[in-house]
Amino acid sequence: MPATMPIRFALNHMVAPQLPLAGLFRLTRSVGLADVEIRNDIAGEAILDGTPAAEVKRLAATEGITILSINALQRFNHWSAARAAEAEALADYCASAGAQALVLVAANDGTGMDDDERVANATEALAGLKPILESRGITGLVECLGFAACSLRSKREAVEAIRAARGEAVFRLTHDTFHHHLAGEPDLYPAMTGLIHISGVDDPAVAVGDMRDGHRVLVGPRDRLGSVAQIRVLRSAGYAGALSFEPFAAELRSLADPAAAIGDSMKFIRAQLAAAAA
Q1: Torsions phi, psi of 42, nearest 5?
Q2: How confident is the model at residue 271 (pLDDT cuts 50, 70, 90)?
Q3: CB atoms near residue 75 (< 10 Å)
Q4: Is the pLDDT at 2 greater than 80, yes or no?
Q5: Is the pLDDT reported for residue 1 higher than 70?
Q6: In whole angstroms, what is the distance from residue 249 CA to residue 218 CA?
Q7: Are 122 and 144 in contact (CB under 8 A)?
Q8: Does residue 3 register a pLDDT over 90?
Q9: Is 66 exposed, middle or buried (0-12, 13-18, 19+ CB in 10 A)?
């Protein structure tokens, strides 16, 4: 990919979950961005507070915001009638809110982890999800978690399941720089990647196997995950989509100036990518 290819950053609501949705949209515009991911797991905020999808769409249009995804359908690979109903409701919300995609997160509770279960369970779920998403024009973004208890840690197995379900036209991977590092999987799938989640871990003391969401901060010079290197390789191989900030650390919720912190991280990433391309 040419070094001059623009970098498209986005904000996941976890970058500032203390803000209402309209506040997130204003924050996004204040740092010169136009793309966001909204969530269905932030108490007191849309979607959990019952905000109608049409209102979300109106708020986004008012600020000139594009909703990349709703994050997420949890335990997607434990397919059942109840999961199908949940998927249909979320897909309807995506379509009505103007969201382009639905993130699909694998079960992370130690179940469904056997060799004969992982790909089979994911394939069954993706086959069930395919008509639900396809009929509404929604992309499914499969996210593998790097935690040892996750039932789908490997992007290789996720791609195998997508292909087995004949879902290449509907599904893409979410490449998360945190989870990719934890999983220790060397393979990248730029042609199958639909979104990149970016965060860093600065704590020098925590072991990789003990890293959790609470350690995830904005990407900066002390990052131990190699997030910029991951981004560089994926972009060099053709990925042209968004880089969505998804830090979870509690201290980010009380920043006096979140826009400045986000701006510093964007500046750092841009400078590192430019230096690598020089």
Answers
A1: -105, 110
A2: very high
A3: 20
A4: no
A5: no
A6: 9
A7: no
A8: no
A9: middle
